[in-house]
Design a protein that fits this description.
The complex is a heterodimer. By secondary structure, chain A is of the alpha/beta class. Helix content of chain A is about 40%, strand content about 15%. In chain A, helix 4 links the parallel strand 2 and strand 3. The model of chain A has no long low-confidence stretch (mean pLDDT about 95). Chain B contains three helices and two strands; from the N terminus they run H-H-H-E-E. Classes of the chains: A alpha/beta, B mainly alpha.
Chain lengths: ~500, ~90
């Protein structure tokens, strides 16, 4: 049996029955990381001693019958989530020596269930990017084809799940950073509703858009992870006081392979987007037919402000970033440039040496858009357009339960192909940004492969707090499509 | 809209970034290009539209004050780039 191929749910079953131990399972992943991560570069930090100690502890608990669904299951974390005592870098030189004093709430939840935290995964610096090429430390490669990017910004987490370096992972999504790399790596990624998951201990990029979510091998594992990470947290005042359903039980009720009664809308504006790859269109069309076969009624809908989403997002996110990242000033933690005469020079030298080019670019855009004389024209107007985008979604969901679209206009592009022109990279986020702007949940589920053999996903979005519909439809779709190849062969 | 190198310099100072001539040149071009694209927001009729700052439920979250322990200076200052006893130190301010 290939232990590294196990889903979270199957690993749990085998652990609970005593067929395998967590130490065996964890060692299988650590061996695989040791054998292959020098080429894929999914991890910034692998916590081998910590993981093996947690696995041994988990085995003791399981022997006493004290296990939860997560006990002994190896999970990877995007290196934007604070882990007490384990370096948390945000893939930035400015935090390359930062060791948090506390755990993010999601990390504390995983620890409380005795999950094995195997390591911290690579990302675009401070989650700013769509390819994981903006990391200060390494460029992660797509496990399906090492010449291609894994997507981003949670590219390390998606590549780690696809390369079978862990059972599942957590990522974060501010404009598509869970869904797009999941699509590019052929795994499942879910961005929950804004407020569904506590952001405490997530290093902020754009606080009104950021959300933590699962990146997993299949939809059932995403549901299992959602059961654990969702819920109100007194440490995050934007986390919602909403009941968290048992997402796994809901999947078990999708028995007849039928999603009859569900309506999925396709926004007519999305298919007018320029530059959609023909392979993506073919796979999208097939996905539509698979859903129709399950009884989903497909309807045309309209999101009239689609054309303005990228422009509004690339004002709002950099504005929030310029404010959030002001805290990295070399005073309380992280890198400091010591050769400075006065404090202003120290701030300037620290930030300029500590932040990479894309982060500096977004700080400059945000500072410009918030500066005197420009605020109303940029941030003010973008926030009004955001209201119109939210209203588009409210109206659209009067007509359907799901909104169906591609995740990205193209399969994973080649490393270096898009680094010269920031705007081109921003435009590729067109299908994923809206969910963050409107606060609605979105899932990316594998839908097949391009002619070059690269994975392509489809995206479904739902009403706020209706992750249940995403998981049910995603689960039905996954089973009906039944892709024979799910994971790459690593050479 | 063209963003001049002088404007880039002014913004960089506000953001406390030190950038060299080559970066100024590059940023001036890139920013002009990005902001030209963003200008399309001017085509949207936003008359009377309330701005949204986020998608959170905007309820006040209130609770009684509670006493709890402090982690103490050694934990709090563990990541300090420079410290003097229980204080962070910085270069001369005045």
């Amino acid at each position: 049996m290939d232990l590294h191929a196990l889903t979270m749910a199957n690993a749990h079953k085998l652990l609970a029955r005593g067929k395998i131990s967590s130490v065996e399972l964890t060692s299988a992943f650590l061996d695989r990381i040791e054998g292959h991560d020098d080429r894929i570069e999914a991890f910034i930090t692998v916590d081998k001693p910590g993981a093996l100690a947690q696995a041994a502890k988990a085995d003791e608990l399981i022997a006493k019958g004290l296990q939860s669904p997560f006990t002994g299951i190896p999970i990877a974390l995007k290196d934007l989530l604070c882990t007490q005592g384990v370096k948390t870098t945000c893939a930035s030189k400015i935090l390359d020596n930062f060791i948090p004093q506390y755990d993010a709430t999601v990390v504390a939840k995983l620890k409380a269930e005795q999950a094995v935290l195997i390591g911290k995964t690579n990302l675009d610096e401070f989650a700013m990017g769509s390819s994981t090429e903006n990391s200060a430390f390494k460029v992660t490669r797509n496990p399906w084809n090492l010449d291609h990017v894994p997507g981003g910004s949670s590219g390390g987490s998606a590549a780690a799940v696809a390369a079978q370096f862990c059972c599942g992972a957590l990522g974060t999504d501010t404009g598509g950073s869970i869904r797009q790399p999941a699509s590019h790596c052929g795994v499942v990624g879910l961005k929950p509703t804004y407020g569904r998951v506590s952001r405490f201990g997530l290093v902020s990029y754009a606080s009104s858009l950021d959300q933590i979510g699962p990146i997993t091998r299949d939809v059932a594992d995403a549901a299992m992870m959602m059961n654990l990470i969702c819920g109100n947290d007194p440490k995050d005042s934007t986390s919602a006081r909403m009941d968290v359903p048992n997402f796994t039980l809901a999947l078990q009720q999708v028995e007849s392979k039928s999603l009859r009664g569900m309506k999925a809308g396709i926004p007519k504006e999305y298919l007018d987007v320029e530059g959609i790859d023909p392979d993506v269109l073919v796979l999208f069309d097939r996905a539509k037919k698979v859903l129709e076969g399950l009884g989903v009624e497909i309807v045309e809908i309209s999101l009239p402000h689609t054309e303005y989403v990228v422009a509004a997002y690339y004002i709002i996110a950099p504005c929030e970033a310029s404010s959030n990242l002001a805290r990295f000033d070399g005073v309380r933690y992280g890198f400091r440039e010591h050769a400075s005469q006065d404090i202003i020079e120290m701030y300037k030298k620290t930030k300029s040496k500590g932040f990479g080019p894309e982060v500096q670019r977004r700080i400059i855009i945000g500072t410009y858009a918030l500066s005197a004389g420009y605020y109303d024209a940029y941030y003010g107007r973008a926030s009004q357009v955001r209201t119109l985008i939210m209203e588009d979604f409210t109206k659209a969901f009067d007509q359907c339960d799901l909104i169906l679209s591609p995740v990205a206009p193209t399969p994973a592009f080649k490393i270096g192909e898009n680094t010269g022109d920031p705007l081109t990279m921003y435009l590729s986020d067109i299908f994923t940004l809206s969910a963050n702007m409107a606060g609605v949940p979105g899932i990316s589920v594998p839908a097949g492969f391009s002619s070059l053999g690269l994975p392509v996903g489809i995206q479904m979005m739902a009403k706020r707090f209706d992750e249940m519909s995403l998981l049910r439809a995603g689960f039905g779709f996954e089973r009906a499509l039944d892709l024979k190849t799910r994971f790459p062969v690593l050479s | 809209m063209k963003i001049s190198k002088e404007e880039i310099e002014k913004i960089a100072h506000l953001a406390r970034l030190e950038i060299n001539e080559t970066q100024k040149e590059a940023l001036s071009g890139q920013l002009s290009h990005i902001l030209a694209y963003i200008d399309k927001l001017k085509d949207v009729d936003v008359e009377g539209v309330t701005p949204s700052s986020g998608a959170a439920f905007l309820n006040n979250v209130l609770r009684e004050d509670q006493l709890s322990g402090s982690p103490g200076p050694d934990v709090t200052l563990a990541n300090a780039p420079e410290r003097d006893q229980d204080f962070y130190t910085v270069p001369r301010v005045v």
